[in-house]
Amino acid sequence: MSSQGLTHYYHRAKQGLMGINPHEATQLGEDWMIAGATGAVLGLMSAATGGMDLKIAGLTVPKDGLAAFALALGGLTMGSKELKVASIAAGGAASSRVFEGFFKKSFGAHGDFDGNDIPFGADPMQLGSGGVGHGFGWGAERDRLIEAAANL
Question: What is the chain's alpha carbon radius of gyration, rounded to the nearest angstrom?
Answer without folding.
Answer: 25
